[in-house]
Structures are given as C-alpha cells and as structure tokens.
UniProtKB/TrEMBL annotation, chain A:
Sorted UniProt keywords: Cell membrane, Membrane, NAD, Quinone, Transmembrane, Transmembrane helix
Keyword match Transmembrane helix: yes
A matching Pfam family: Oxidored_q3
Provenance organism: Streptomyces natalensis ATCC 27448
Enzyme class: translocase
Name this protein carries in UniProt: NADH-quinone oxidoreductase subunit J
Alphabetized PANTHER family for the sequence: NADH-UBIQUINONE OXIDOREDUCTASE CHAIN 6 (PTHR33269:SF17)
Family membership: Belongs to the complex I subunit 6 family.
Catalytic reactions of this protein: a quinone + NADH + 5 H(+)(in) = a quinol + NAD(+) + 4 H(+)(out)
One Gene Ontology term of the molecular function aspect: NADH dehydrogenase (ubiquinone) activity
A GO CC annotation given for this chain: plasma membrane
Main localization, broad class: membrane
TrEMBL record, chain B:
Leading EC class: translocase
Protein name: NADH-quinone oxidoreductase subunit H
Transmembrane segments: 6-26, 76-97, 109-132, 153-175, 181-199, 228-252, 264-285, 297-320
Lineage: Bacteria, Bacillati, Actinomycetota, Actinomycetes, Kitasatosporales
UniProt entry tagged with the keyword Lipid metabolism: no
Length: 205, 321
C-alpha cells in the first residue's frame, strides 16, 4: 500500500477530529485489554476481550482499512471469542470470582507483555512516523487494493501462513485423538477437534 | 446540508423497517401457523383478523415485572438482550433494497460486514445463557455456541462463492453484476446459505438451543417482560435480515424475472416475503433435529456442498472470462 507521504503539511499540535477519535478509541481499547488480564471473573475477561478486539476493529476503520476491520470482527469477535466462551462454559466457569484465576507467572508475563508491546510500538513508530493517510482521496484500504497487494506482492507469505495453519489444524486433530484410540469416545473427540479447527480454518480465507 | 439530511432520512427509513418488519413477520407467523394447523389464530385484538395482537403482546410485555434471578450476574444478564438485538439493526443499514443507491450506506466489504455483525448477535445468547445461573440456560448457551461454530463456516463459504462470481464484496456491486443465469448457477450455495442462516437464528428445525421440551427455553429461560420481548424481536429481525440477504445474494434482489426490473424495490420485498413464508412453513413442517444430527448436517453435508459450489463458481468464472 502506498500512503501519501506529506508529513510537511501535518503537525502533532493541531489534531483533526479523526486523530482525536483514534486516540480515544485507543485508550478505551487499552483499558479493556488491561481489565481482560486483571479481572478475576473468567467470563468477564472473555467479554472484555470482545470490547478490546472490537476497539481494534474501530481503529482499523479509522485507518481506512475497512476490509481488515470486518475480518477482525468476523474472525476474532464472531469465532474466537465464541470458541473461548464455549470452552469456559464446558469447564464450569462460576458466576463471581474464580479464586484460582491467578498465576505465579504474573511478573514474567508482565515483563514479556511490556517487552513485546515496546518492540511493536518502536517498530511501527519507526516505520510510519512521517506517513499520513490521505482521507480525502481514494480509499487506500479498500478490498480491491488489499486483494491486489496480497496476491501480487505478498502471495508467498500468504501461502506459507496457510500451510502453518493447516499444520496447526492437523496437529490439533492428532493431539485430541491420542487418548481414545479405538474406543467409543473417539468419535466425540473427533468432532470436538473439528470444532476447535473452525477458527484457524476460517483464518485462511 | 442536504447530505446530512439525506443520511438522516436513510437511517430513519432503516430504523422504521427495523421496527415494523419483524412485527409483520411475527403476525404472519401467528396467522400462517394457525391456518396450517387448522386453527384461526388471533382474531380479536384490533378488530380485523387480530392484526393488533403483537401490539397488545408488546403492551403486556412492557407491563410485566423485570426480574433478575438472585444468583445471576446482574450486568451481563441485563446487557444480553441489547447485544442480541442491535447487530441486526446495524446489518439492515448495508442491505440494498432497490437500484440507484437505495441502501442505507454503501459498505465496500458489504458481505463481510453483514456476516461479521450477524455473528456478534449470537454473543447475546451466550451471555444470557451463562449469566442466568441456571443449568438449562447454560445448556442452551452451550448448544448455541456449538451450533454457531458449525454453521458459520458453510455460510461464509456460500457467500464467498457469490463474491467470486461478482468479483466484488459490496452488496450493491453484486446486484449490479447480476444476470438471471446466476440463480441456477449459485442455487446450491443459496440453499447452503439459507440453511446455515436458519441454524444461526436457531429457527426450527434447528432450534435445539431453545428446545422447549428438554431445556425449557434455553438461554432465555430466566427472562421476563421487555428483555424477553427483545430476544423474541431479535429472532424476527434475524429472519428479516436472513431473507433479505438471501434474496440479494442469490435471487437477484431488485432484478425481476424476464427483464421486468421496473418494480425495483418491490421485487426485493416480494422475494424477502416469500422466503420468510418459507421460514414459517419449515417451522410448522419439520421436527427438531437432534444435536448430533445438527453437527453431522453441517460438517458432512453443508460444508462439502459449499466447497463444491466454490469450485463450480471458479471453473465457470474461468471458462467465461
């Protein structure tokens, strides 16, 4: 994608409405994400994850990447979170606090999270610091543009990702079949594996 | 200024459709089911063939006490009906009813938008099922989730086939590219899409999540009053959305047969109404599918059919281009 590089005409001190909205949605998303990892109520965590993922979809929309935004809602909010909730309901998630919803690894997790966040922010800022999206011109994140870019310049990474997801799918089936070899429950396990496979399968499209 | 006014008018029209059409379908269901079963259905409210029955029902629902069970998760319990209903309002904005931009808002990736937002609606049922603190509700929620995971994929694949045929993801764009021979070409995909959509709406014969003879009313067991009415409204709004989408994607929307395009939006309404009648008819005709039959139908019948349709679409597309 070619972004209009007209940094000279823009400054950080006179933000437009879109930029303010982008910041506010970003803060809300960050807040939802923080609650997701700190709340003691398991299902609440899954539902706050919906808010965080939805917030990211709104950010994509504000960046004119419409197609990515809807795919984000379709895959993450519509499928991955439903899968999470399905799993939580199977494991008897109680209403109210779960006393064991904590981990001794919390400090290690915090360090890893901060390090990866720092790396991502640094890379993105370094790459796009002086790049501005021209909101008045043609839409730059439209489906047609994205499809052309994806299947002309990025087709090899795309196919590699497909193979990776296929491998994950096969791996999930193999793992879930391990226990009930040749017994009656094998059929149940198989359909369970197929269900878990839904999310990665969809991500290929 | 006229732009703002135009947008406001469009949104108002979508909102009116959202308020009126589900009620019309609900009333039609009362009457059609009654006549198919050799009854009369509601006859008194409003005078003429009980046309105001649903209005009276609405007044009744509004008067009832709004109860939240003591053990329930209050906030989520109360939020769930809104999460179930609002996505359908958003989806209606993107569905074109007539030629020349008769649509609430043109969305570039329209198919993805409608399918994504419809999927969010199911979160409402899951929230209701979990937050009710009731084992029947929880079972209903579980069945809803299992059903959604199974039927989302064939629905997406069938829609992708149409997008391939038209070469665009925008709903008005698909209608602009439509030719009459698309109907036989995409008929299998259409059947898969409609069936999977019925399952996503939990309409009979796919109403295992609310099977009243086993788990009372599934995720909605603990609801009373207006919140219960909102869930019912979400079901009927879902029928409107599914039928309108099927007619837009697979039956040509505002295109009439034999080049009779003059009626425009009336064709869309007519096709939607016929499909909605079919939905009601299926409810009266077919017994409920068992849970394993549900899963089997999705994974062994609908997904292979949808994949075959995509292959067929690809082959024909390459041959004619």
């Amino acid at each position: 994608m070619t972004l209009a590089a007209t940094a000279a005409a823009h400054g950080f001190l006179s933000p437009t409405g879109v930029e303010i909205a982008f910041l506010l949605v970003g803060i809300a998303t960050l807040g939802a994400a923080l609650i997701t990892v700190t709340t003691r109520q398991l299902v609440h965590a899954a539902l706050w994850l919906v808010v965080a993922l939805g917030g990211i979809a709104v950010e994509y929309l504000l960046l004119t990447a419409e197609f990515i935004a809807w795919v984000q809602v379709l895959i993450y909010v519509g499928s991955v979170v439903v899968l999470l909730l399905f799993g939580l309901m199977l494991t008897k998630a109680p209403i109210g606090r779960s006393p064991d919803a904590d981990s001794g690894n919390r400090w290690a997790a915090l360090v890893v999270a901060l390090a990866s966040a720092g790396t991502l922010v640094w890379v993105v800022v370094d790459a796009f610091r002086a790049t501005w999206i021209d909101l008045d011109g043609a839409v730059q994140g439209s489906t047609a543009t994205l499809g052309r870019t994806l299947f002309q310049y990025w087709v090899l990474p795309f196919e590699a990702l497909s193979v990776l997801l296929l491998a994950a799918l096969v791996g999930a089936i193999v793992l879930s079949r391990k226990g009930g070899e040749g017994k009656a429950p094998a059929a149940d396990l198989r359909s369970g594996a197929a269900r878990t496979g839904t999310a990665p399968r969809e991500e290929q499209h | 200024m006229s732009d703002t006014l135009g947008i406001a008018l469009r949104l108002l029209a979508v909102f009116v459709v959202f308020l009126v059409f589900p009620l019309v379908i609900g009333q039609t269901e009362h009457k059609v089911m009654a006549h198919m079963q050799g009854r009369l259905g509601p006859m008194y409210a409003g005078g003429f063939h009980g046309w105001a029955q649903l209005v009276a029902d609405g007044v009744k629902f509004a008067q009832k006490e709004d109860i939240v069970p003591a053990g329930a998760d209050r906030r989520i319990f109360q939020l769930a009906p809104a999460v179930a209903l609002l996505p359908y309002l958003l989806v209606l904005i993107a569905i074109p009813v007539g030629p020349h931009g008769a649509v609430g808002q043109v969305v570039d990736a329209g198919i993805f938008f409608v399918l994504a937002v419809m999927g969010v609606g199911v979160l409402g049922s899951l929230m209701a099922g979990w937050a009710s603190a009731n084992k029947f509700s929880l079972l209903g929620g579980l069945r809803t989730a299992a059903q959604l995971l199974a039927y989302e994929l064939p629905m997406l694949l069938a829609a992708a086939s149409v997008a391939m045929a038209a070469g665009t993801l925008s709903l008005p764009g698909i209608l602009d590219a439509f030719h009459w021979w698309w109907v036989p070409w995409q008929i299998v995909g259409g059947a898969v899409f409609f069936t999977a959509g019925l399952a996503e709406l939990q309409r009979p014969p796919f109403d295992m999540p609310v099977a009243d003879s086993e788990i009372i009313f599934g995720a909605y067991t603990e609801y009373t009053g207006l919140r219960f009415a909102l869930f019912l409204l979400a079901e009927y709004a879902g029928i409107v959305v599914l039928c309108a989408l099927t007619s837009v994607l697979f039956l040509g929307g505002w295109h009439g047969p034999f080049g009779l395009n003059g009626l425009g939006w009336l064709w869309t309404l007519l096709k939607t109404a016929v499909l909605a009648f079919g939905v009601i008819w299926l409810r009266v005709t077919y017994p409920r599918l068992r849970e394993d039959q549900l899963q089997k139908l999705a994974w062994t019948v609908l997904i292979p059919l949808a994949l075959a349709q995509i292959a067929l679409t690809g082959v024909v597309k390459v041959v004619i281009s």
